[in-house]
Amino acid sequence: MSSAAAKINENVIRWSEIRLPHPSKSGELATWEMDGPFALRRYYRVDGEEAVVKIEHFDCRNDDGTLSGCLFCGGKSLERRTDVNWKPIIILAVLGLAPAYWTYGLTLLLVAYPIWFLLASSPKTDKCTSCSSEFVNFCFGPRP
Fold this sequence. Notes:
19% of the residues lie in helices and 22% in strands. It is of the alpha+beta class. The strands form two sheets. Strands 2-1-7-6-5 form a five-stranded antiparallel beta sheet, with no helix packed on it. The chain has a two-stranded antiparallel ribbon with strand order 3-4.
């Protein structure tokens, strides 16, 4: 009997986060962090309470770590948004634009890559439209 070890795709491992409806506080989300979209458990215990939140729809998770539906309620409509921290991006843009007249636009080229990096590395959030659960960084590929 040979048991081959499962292959781990290192490209999709990153910190992920799930925010599920709180079992006892209506309208609030309970948050848990995990080391990638493959580190999901069947249930999560809410800190300081006996309440347990169950994940029953593992069939909504694709092989590459992305989601085709909500893991909590099984809903198929997910809204994707990017949580961008705009403050450093605006500061870099202003620093690139201010001397651009005198540097013939070279400062814009210097700040273009850091701005792209900040935009590309921003966490992507999938939000279920029916139960308001949120799944952060359940996307394919490594972060830049």
